[in-house]
Structures are given as structure tokens and as C-alpha cells.
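pasting for ref
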Amino acid sequence: MPEPVSEKTSSPAVKPTIDLKDPSLYINREIGQLEFNRRVLQECLNPDHPLLERVKFLAIFSSNLNEFFMVRVSGLKQQMLLGITKRPPDGLTPREQLAAIHDVVSELVAEAMRCWHECLYPELVKEGIQILSYEEFKKRHQKRLSDYFEREIFPVLTPLAFDPGHPFPHISNLSLNLAVEIRDPDADETHFARVKVPSTLPRFVPLKPFDPDNLVQPSVQKFALMEQVIAANLDRLFPGMEIVAAYPFRITRNTDMEIQEEEADDLLLTMEKNLRQRHFGSVVRLGIAEDTSENIRNILMTNLKIGASDVYPVKGPLGLNNLWELHGLERPDLKDESFTPRLSPLLNGEENIFRILQRQNVLLHHPYESFLPVVEFVETAASDPKVLAIKQTLYRVGPNPVIVQALMKARENGKQVTVLVELKARFDEESNIEWARALEKAGVHVVYGLIGLKTHCKVCLVVRKEQEGIKRYVHIATGNYNTLTARIYTDLGFMTSDEAMGADASDLFNYLTGYSKQAEYRKFLVAPVNLRASLLELIEQETALGEDGRIIIKCNSLVDEQMIRALYRASQAGVQIDLIVRGICCLRPGVPGVSDNIRVLSIVGRFLEHSRIYYFHNQGDSAMYIGSADLMPRNIDRRVEVLFPIENAAMRQDIVENILNIYLKDTEKAYELQADGRYIPRRELEAGSESLFNSQMWFLNGRTQPMLQPHLPPIVELSPPETPPE
């Protein structure tokens, strides 16, 4: 295990005069996350996307914002409540961060509403998709909607009064509600009532079905918003009363659960209890219609125990995450063309997967290459009579997971099966609990990981008895064992029979399931054991090379202060550094004397960029690691993560030339981070060029698009040694 690199370490040739702990050198983490969501929102305006895909991006924007409040804003409010004064590297206090968040979110929500009203909705109307206010419908159509209300909605509704005899009702997280003002004509009194809009019914109520066979001249498909249908028929809920007004509102609660694992006798039961408690977290955001009366606004603020800064008035429909319903319409003419992932040429045949892996390693690039070989790897192991044991980590598996079914089948076939199910996978806890119980019922040995650590690595180990003895096969990846996300996330998976990696995988599972204090691994970099020290050592190695150094990192987030300072020192020494960071990046590129040699790109496109690649040139004797870890304190210090090496020079060169360099050439979907924290689309920076290059389309089309010249000189590896290709 490499020795940790000192915070003060620097190349002898560099004499930094700038304090690398200066807060001005760091972008705030929370603002960085909101800026990523701004880039998602900008995709709604990109005419290169089909219309319903742009609507989808608006739904993703809204979902991201929900999660941001449920977790990040909740955490900052808790810090304020507890009087925590520790500041992040950028120096902002929790109160200052919350004030900045309010300003940015208000701006983003207004921008999202403009996008909906001025851009997306007018185009939907042109395509025959109309969402009308209740008043815009003709009388006969209102009658049909009233009939639907009577038949489908009314039986589900439960109006809840609020007065001295009725406490203020509990408002569930992210539920859509109507705050109703009612006047009793006999007593001449005004009352408040709450009506919950049922989430079990479609938010967009169709007036008539769309004809998918008539796409040449499609008929108009009209929708009404569920809350407006309910508001128009409130007299059925409050007979004899006068309906003064009804205003939609929606709250967001703190859902970031604190789990006292040391005190939990049964982590599964503790998680189930905490999930129930999630519904009662404190309110951190109130979304209301812009025209909500002052009286109703005050009633909600007082009883939800929030301040004015927690209120977000919206000019338009609340809860745009429900736009997923529109994306689900049968309108293939308004969506991305479907595609069939390619089968890796190394696996294109009927040969047993284990025989293939005895000869060569296999690298898979999802979703462009099929995820089916990974499924086949587990399914073949489940039925192969020579397989003795399967060990696997599961983080997010999704609904009806074929991998889980294969593991249960393996147990039925007498294999020894051990599965680590991470119950603390945020917002997938309920699904993971369900599958953990199903696996246990099938006789699988299920464990839940280490106290205080979330198991985020993606590893499957197969132990097989062969003629020459016991042999281990490993699949290790950047993405989850989830067949749905494997079609929309870009990830890398690696299958091997390498003895050292197999031994490392065995040691890893012993660490996860037993009392092992494994501190050294042959090839794996494992967090929180040796990953931080090893990456810092690799960065320092390039720093010592000065202008001959070269680093390329592709990850989801770059937040860790120690890693950022190491990269700053490398840049000061003259190392050329390219960072492809999809989401949060707290490093400021292009700061004179600090990060002149660092470029940061973020790619937002059809697929979610999820793969992590760490490349260090080392004058041609390069090192490359791939795996599950991002450069965040939680990933490096509080999660079990694994990075694994790509040792074959030819495979490394292929990844550099045909993956990393392709991303660096992207001028259509890439954004470039500026020193002031702004992300500028590279298509604007490349405004004078004749054509734009889309990396994801290049991958999707089987590397057939012409490549443009890179902005930096291409990396040249040393000639690969005479070894069989992996």
C-alpha cells in the first residue's frame, strides 16, 4: 500500500507562492450541483433533441431539484440547527449557502417555467398535444371531465378540514395538494381545507385517446391537469358550501435519514423503520401557485413551520417531474430513434463465456455494447455444474432484475451464493429491501455491508472447479447490475480470469462479509483502504514530470479538497490535465498560476455519463484505473469503492484513443467550465467551425463518424509489449 502523500508535497521544480487553501480557488459544492441541473435544463432548449426528449429533460430537471432539496438543503438546515460552524473549502457558512441556493433556485425555476410556456408547450401544441386549462374546454368536454371525476377521482379523495376541532393535516413529501378556501353561507365564516391530488391516477387526464396509426396527420390529443379537474368539481366534496378559491401547493421534506448502525440489532428492520420516518421529515421547501392568496400562504407557512425563504412561487404547473407521463405517449416521431446495442465481437458466438475469459479479458462499453454478456455471465454461472460459488454486490438493481433471478436460480442449483445488498442506496432502499428478502427466502446468504460504510463497488466473483484446479472469474464495473440503466447510462464493464484480480475480489468479499481488516491488495485500489493514497501518488508522479506529465480523469463529481490541491500542484508544475466531470466540479480551471493547464468539460446528452476512468501517462509507461469511485470525500473515505487497473497496453491505448479522446473532441454536447464557475457550451466556443462533433452519437454509430482534431496533442503510448491482447 503506497504511503499517503503529504498535503505540502510538491515537485522540487515548483515553488508555489499561492495558498492552495484560498477559498476563492473552490466552487461551492451545492452551487456546482445546481449548475449541473442548469445544464440539464439547457438541453430542453436544444432543437437537436426530439421534442418529447426535451420534455424528458425538463422532468429530469424537476426530479433533480426535488432530490437536491430532500438531501442537500436538508443537510444545510440541520447544520444550522445544530450550530455547526465548519465551512467547506469555498468558505461559505451554511446560512450563506442557503441564501445563495435560494437565489439560484428561484432563477432556475423561473427559467424552467419560461422554457415550458414559451418553448416546449407551443411546440407540443403544433404536434397535436394540448394541455388546456379547465376553462378552455368546451362545455361538452367539461361534462366528460366531470364524468371522469365522478367515476375515477371522487371515490379516492378525502378532504381534510383545519379548524379548532381538526388539527392541520399531515402533508406527505412531494404530494400535490389543493389548499381550499370555503365559506359557510349560514355562519358567514371562511374555512381552510386540504385536498390531496391522488398520485395513483394520471396527472395529465386525457380527453380522448391518441391514434398511433395516424402519424402523418395526427389528431389532437387534449389533456387536463388533474388538480384543475378536482378544483372544478369541489362542490361535490363540500356540498352546501361556497368555494372561494383553490390553490395548488407542494412540499418537500427532509429525507436524508440518520441511521445509528452501531445500535441497530437488525439493519434490515432499522432501514424499514427509517423509511417510515422519512414521511415525517421537516419541511424544507413549499412550492405554491404564484397567485396564492396571502391568507393561504400564511396558513401554510405557519403550520408547516417554514420561513419566507423556503417558499417558491411558481407561474405554471407544480411538479414538472410528472412530465414523464407525456414522454410515455406513443409518439415515436417525437422521440429518439431506438437502437440495439452491439454485441462485443469478442463474444459474438455460441462459445461458453468462461472459455472465452480463459483466453482473454473482455471490456464492455455500455450502452453502446450490450449488457447481455454480463447477464449471461451470471446466468451461465448459475447453471454451470462446475461453478461452486457466486459472490456479488448489488447497489441499484431496478424492478424485476434478471441478475437477482439468476442468483436465486444458482442457489436452487446448489451453488453457494453470497450477495451484499446495499440497503442505504438512497431512494432505492425499499426496492433493495424487497429483493434482499426475496434472496434470503431463496436461501441466498445476504449481508448488508460494513458499519458506517456504504458499499458502492460493483463486483461479481464466480468460483469454478476446473481440471487444473479452482479458478476465479470476475466481472467488475463502473455501473450497477441494472438492465434498465444499462441502456441509458454510459458505463464500462470488465470481465477477467486474472488470478491476482480474482484473489483481490476474494479478499474484498471477505472484507465485506466477515471481520477481515484487509489492508493490502494486489491490483485493486479499494476505498477507504488504499484508494486515496494511491491516486495521490499517481498524481504526484505526473507532477514530478512537469511539462512531460499528462493526466486525464473522467468521473461524475470532483469535490475532494485534497485531490483538487494535488491537481493544482500538478498544473503549476506544467502537467497537461483534462477533466471530464459530468456533475459537480469544485475545482476552478484556468486560474493564472494555479490551474492554467487544467481544462474541465461536462457532457450532457442522450445518455447519462456514468463511467469513471483515471489515466496517468507517465512518459508512455502509463497507468489506467477504471471503477466505481468518484473524487468526493464520501466515495474515498465513507464508501467501499474499487478501481481496477487496465494492464494491457493495447487496451489502454484503445480506451485513450477511442473513448477519452473522443469525449475531449466533443463540441456539440460538451460544456467547458470557466474560472468564474460558468459553463459555456462548446458549440458556442466553436461557433466558427463548419461542423460539430457529438461523442455519444459517434459511439452509437459504431465509431463511424469522422473525428475532429483534438485541442491538445494526442497521447502517444510506448509500443505495446509482445503479449496476447486482452
